[in-house]
Amino acid sequence: MLPSPAVSVIIPTYNRAKTIERAINSVLNQTFSDMELIVVDDCSTDSTAEIIKKYRDERLIYIKHDKNRGEGGARNTGIRNARAKYIAFLDSDDEWFPNKLEKQMPVIQESDSKVGIVYSHYIMQYEDGSGAHLENTSIKG
Q1: What average pLDDT values come out for the chain (141 residues) when binned by 10 residues?
Q2: Concatenated DSSP letters for 87-124?
Q3: How far apart are CA 44 and CA 86, in angstroms?
Q4: Which domains are delineated in the chain?
Q5: pTM
């Protein structure tokens, strides 16, 4: 049996043939490699499954629902199959910068047990090129 990875990355997806490859590549190309990637296909009817099945990376685990369970159902399937202590979510139409996990994992691993979530700034970009940038902020509570 393989040792548990430090983090399980979960990508829930449904009919995202146009964007799933970019999302998967952004995870597999992370500078932090002690992870598994769980892609949960929520019964897509487009070519999403065929795109995912092309990958031969042993870190990628592909699960396809036999019926549509919604995004929450896909996330829960990913959680049930995760082997790591920590979980990170990525939507299938998004992508990560290559060092996202490298920067976030030490923060959560070195924090006390009261920390329940770690997040970072993000850049939102639409197909027309417009978008917005959300800077890092602290949320306490």
Answers
A1: 90 97 97 98 98 98 97 98 96 93 90 73 69 62 47
A2: EEE--TT----TTHHHHHHHHHHTS-TT-------EEE
A3: 27
A4: 7-134 (3.90.550.10)
A5: 0.88
